């Protein structure tokens, strides 16, 4: 689970994840590691050892190389958290990993640019409705609760073809799947059982009465003999529901924290809304609170950054640290709303990049346009340094984003 002694340095073992000085600022260690320790030894919350990559080229290489596998349930792979069974390590996750290419091809057909583009007016109407409700309730408001969380939930439920879900239940199930230190194993198992029963019910309903939606398409593919098991179908449905709202909800909140935390950024956008597209890309790149990163496991000897990693090594790819690499981005520690091109690694790299990125980009751009149009005087109701970071989960986020207008 670590580099052999011949390639090991005298660098201390760091506890990972690295602490952030505030919810929107990067750890000081990132720059030091990129400069002098591109393969750093880290200790995970489980106590197991892994190596951390922070340079752009190294992270990009690993994410695009299928030999760095997702098989975190294999013997010898580092456990991420003290309580096993999270999103990376469960038996269900192992099943999806083995059938990755099969289900990925299915989803790629469903998340086409054409389909996502057709949803944009509906997403805009949802955003306007939520902003109406927030304004009606008056300032100050929590932008996370009022807009950032519910909008992606509504969007992904509509895409899947399931009724608007109980938000508190979904948040609980989702957080349990993304657990790092917040839940016990018993709590995780109970949440997974509830979530599985919920998804099985909807799969049965789609089988009985299919509609024009993604879940119906996946059910039909299985029933037509596509090599996808019932367990994989259920896990894909759960994965889309969780990934389809969790990352986007958190990114909306963090993006608004970044933009409102520096008044010049927000005023630049109000003056020139044509910068929305490049602003969204820069918010994705500049996000210092992106969460755990992507773990990979190797079963053969491989080379990264001029060092040989032995079989049995668990590698953590920090896309957020790589996105701040001065060798890849000019003025990497500056949020430049006009930055273009912007080849950030937030959605991964190569053929294994996130299949839902077109939908996420559309939601982020639509929300930002709506807020600029409806609430140009929007401002944080607390200092940016007081924004509280979500703790104990694999994904980074903010607890609340208090705003006024």
From TrEMBL:
The keyword Glycoprotein does not apply. Gene3D superfamilies: Cytochrome P450. Pfam families: p450. InterPro entries: Cyt_P450 (IPR001128), Cyt_P450_B (IPR002397), Cyt_P450_sf (IPR036396). The keyword Heme applies. It comes from the Bacteria. Its cofactor is heme. Keywords: Heme, Iron, Metal-binding, Monooxygenase, Oxidoreductase. CDD domains: Cyp158A-like. This is Cytochrome P450. It comes from Nannocystis bainbridge. The lineage of its organism: Bacteria, Pseudomonadati, Myxococcota, Polyangia, Nannocystales.
